[in-house]
Structure formats: C-alpha cells, structure tokens
C-alpha cells in the first residue's frame, strides 16, 4: 500500500476521534463543527488521494469512509456529494461523445474502427526464393541491404491509429470516473435508506440518463438497484424488478419491445409473458394495503405505472384498482397533478385517471377549492371527443364537476 493511503487513513482516524469527542462534550457546536469537518475531509475523499486515486485500495477506503459519513451526518455529506456531482466535468463530456467515439472505444488496440469485421491481409516475406549465382549474387545481396520506407497508406493508417488511441483513452477516463461516482452514490445511498428516500427525486435525475449510456449503463443499473432499495417498505423488496423495469423504459427502442406484446383483444385465451411487471404490480398492491404510498416512493415508481398502463393495455384491470388505492393518500393540492392523465392520447389511460381521482378524499368529501388548473382539466374532459370519458365522469356524481369547470 502506498504512503498516501496510510496518511489518509490516519486523518480519517483523527476525524472519528474528533467526532466522538464532539458527541460527548460540545453538543451545541456539533452542527457547525461537523459541517466544517465534512468540508475538510470530503476534499480528500473525492480527490486524487481518495475516490479518484489510481490505487484501488484508496478508492475502496474512500467509498467506505463516505458511507460512514453518510451514517453519521447524512445531510451535510449528501449536500457536498451532490455539489461534487453537479460540478463533475465527466457528465458533460459524456454527453458530447458521438457514436464514432463509442465505436472507437469498443475497437481493440491496433485495429481501426473502420476495419472491424473486415479481413486485413497480412504481408509475409517469402524466404524460399531462388537467387542468382555467380557475379550476379553480389548485386542481389546489396538489394537486400536497401531500406524500404513505409508507404503513404501505411503512414496514414498509423496516424489514424494514434488518433483513435487518444479517443479511446479519453472515453476510458470518462467511463472510469463516472463508474466510480455511480458506485459511490449507490453505496452511500443504501447505508442510510431513510434519509435517501427523501432525496430520491434528485438522485434519479443523475442516474436515469446513464441507464441508456453505452459505456456505464451496467454500473448505472447497479446504482438504480440500490436506490430502489431505499423506497418505502415493503415495496423495497421488489427493488431488482423495479430497477430492471426502469432500465427497460429508459431504452430508446422500448416501443419496439412492447409492440410484440399482444393487447387484450389479441391475446384470446393466452396471457403475455410479462412476469417482471406482474411482480411489480403485485408488490404495489401489497404495499398499498398497509397505507398510502409516500410521495417520494410513488414518484420513483410512477414511470413504471405510466408505461405499463399506456403501452400494455392488458394490465388495465390490475392497475386500475392500484391507482384507486394510491389516490387515497393524495392531498387536495395534488388534485391538479393527478388530473394530468386526462391529457393522455390513449382512451383507457384517460378513463383510468377519471376513475382514480374519485377516490381522492377531498373529491369524495366534496371539499374542493377553486383551482384554475383543475377547472381546465375538467373542461377538457367535458369536451373530450370520446363520450365514454364524459359518461365516466358523471357515472358517480360525487361532486358537480361541470359546475366546477364553469
């Protein structure tokens, strides 16, 4: 192990002792002192002597130390770590990578990206040729001593190889740094799941775009699994399934996958092979029975519900009751957001939204306040070209939606 690793470990031991003394004596100064201590040590933890070190032992020690900080002072640690993520230059560099750069990165050393899949003939010197005899043998030997320079084609190829080697090194550096950040994020998140639960919306914004990355998608998926374990129990027991579904949804060609799944009218007596989403729906149903799903957990899993309901109509029957149970925990000021489903292009999505909002306590209790956004959504439903939506709105007239829209 390197000398810097031992020095850094001694600093960390001093931090632990300092924190223990603070906890035992000066509790009134604890927030201020711990904040400055975090600022001081995070510079080493996230710098070249810690997470960005070339030594894997130092990287592991930095991640373990970040996890310890997250368990002791989660708020300050999280704030500083997020600031570091926002300033990370590799995020913007990753977004500037072209398809050509990715192709070069996946090309082996010594081979041009344009040569992949193309057979390159190898020139071999022939040794068994017959040489002239007598006095002509001298001239033949002299010809062998003449240096044959590289052709223009060979020089151009070597130049391209050097350029692609530079691109490959740049992409490799971006991949290493982003992978380390994702790994650290997943580790510190799972250490304190209660605190991480309140930060899920902001953390997902960093991880979700990287699920479709061609160079760090695997590490992003592992991080998403750890974030999924931080949602409210018992739904967190389905963390691998939820993370897998979010990864599928993040894929650009997800529509091509779902187009192969038969709808309700096409499936006859057979059900589509959708065990993954069936397990998620089952988990949501079980979780809603114990009480309303927390807002942060609902926001985290909402993309799964949205795509299953909007793209796979075969699950309308099972998702409808689940949406009704989720709406039981919505507050009056969240009605406008719940009505966003009336703008969906699919009729069954609009119907599911209209049926679910009737379960919101403020709607069922007829205690709605005047709201422009809510009135606009209801006006939109009143003028829906599909009459079935209008009939669904007034099927159970628990409140005068028409008067509210007026």
What would you say this structure looks like, in words?
This protein is mostly helical and 406 residues long. It is 65% helix and 0% strand. It is built from 22 helices and no strands. α16 (316-327) runs parallel beside α18. It starts with a helix and ends with a helix. Keywords: Membrane, Repeat, Transmembrane, Transmembrane helix. One of its GO terms (molecular function) is protein kinase regulator activity. The chain crosses the membrane at residues 20-42.
Number of helices: 22
User: What's the order of the H and E elements?
Assistant: HHHHHHHHHHHHHHHHHHHHHH
Strand content: under 5%
Q: Which class of secondary structure composition applies to the elements?
A: mainly alpha
Question: CA-to-CA gap between the ends?
Answer: 74 Å
SS elements, strand count: 0
Task: Flag low-confidence runs.
Answer: 1-6, 16-30, 254-273
Apparent shape:
globular
Helix content: 55-70%
Radius of gyration from the CA trace? 31 Å
Rounded mean pLDDT is 77
Largest sheet: none
In short:
The chain is an all-alpha fold. It is 65% helix and 0% strand.
Break the fold down into its secondary structure elements and pairings:
Layout (H helix, E strand, L loop, with lengths): L2 H22 L5 H16 L10 H17 L1 H14 L1 H7 L3 H7 L30 H10 L6 H40 L1 H6 L1 H8 L9 H12 L10 H12 L3 H5 L16 H15 L5 H17 L4 H12 L7 H4 L8 H11 L3 H4 L7 H11 L4 H7 L7 H5 L1
Helix pairs in contact: 1-2, 2-3, 2-4, 3-4, 3-8, 5-8, 6-8, 8-11, 10-11, 11-12, 12-14, 12-15, 14-16, 16-18, 18-21
List keywords for this structure.
single chain, disordered N terminus, 406 residues, globular
């Amino acid at each position: 192990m390197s000398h810097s690793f031992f020095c850094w470990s001694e600093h960390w031991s001093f931090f632990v002792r300092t924190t223990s003394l603070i906890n035992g004596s000066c509790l009134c100064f604890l927030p201020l002192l711990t904040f400055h201590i975090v600022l001081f040590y995070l510079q080493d933890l996230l710098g070249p002597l810690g997470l960005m070190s070339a030594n894997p032992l130092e990287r592991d020690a930095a991640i373990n130390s970040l996890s310890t900080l997250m368990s002791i002072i989660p708020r300050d640690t999280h704030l500083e770590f997020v600031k570091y993520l926002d300033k990370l230059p590799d995020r913007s560099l990753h977004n500037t990578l072209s398809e050509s750069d990715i192709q070069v990165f996946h090309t082996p050393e010594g081979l041009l990206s344009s040569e992949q899949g193309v057979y390159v003939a190898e020139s071999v010197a022939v040794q068994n040729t017959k040489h002239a005899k007598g006095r002509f043998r001298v001239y033949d030997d002299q010809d062998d001593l003449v240096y044959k320079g590289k052709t223009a084609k060979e020089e151009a190829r070597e130049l391209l190889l050097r350029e692609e080697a530079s691109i490959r090194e740049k992409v490799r550096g971006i991949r290493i740094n982003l992978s380390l950040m994702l790994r650290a994020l997943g580790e510190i998140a799972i250490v304190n799941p209660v605190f991480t639960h309140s930060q899920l919306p902001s953390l997902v914004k960093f991880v979700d775009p990287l699920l479709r990355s061609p160079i760090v998608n695997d590490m992003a998926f592992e991080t998403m699994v750890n974030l999924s374990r931080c949602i409210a129990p018992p739904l967190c027991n389905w963390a691998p399934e939820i993370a897998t579904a979010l990864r599928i949804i993040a894929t650009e060609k997800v529509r091509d996958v779902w187009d192969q799944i038969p709808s309700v009218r096409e499936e006859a007596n057979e059900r589509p092979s959708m065990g993954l989403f069936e397990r998620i729906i089952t988990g949501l149903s079980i979780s809603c029975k114990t009480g309303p799903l927390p807002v942060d957990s609902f926001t985290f899993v909402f993309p799964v519900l949205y795509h299953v309901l909007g793209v796979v109509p075969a699950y309308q029957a099972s998702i409808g009751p689940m949406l009704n149970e989720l709406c039981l925990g919505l507050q009056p000021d969240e009605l406008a957001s719940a009505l966003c489903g009336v703008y969906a292009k699919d009729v069954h999505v609009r119907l599911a939204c209209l049926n679910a909002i009737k379960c919101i306590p403020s709607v069922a209790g007829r205690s709605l306040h005047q709201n422009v956004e809510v009135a606009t959504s209801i006006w939109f439903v009143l003028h829906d070209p599909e009459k079935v939506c209008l009939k669904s709105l007034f099927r159970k007239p628990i409140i005068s939606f028409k008067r509210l829209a007026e």
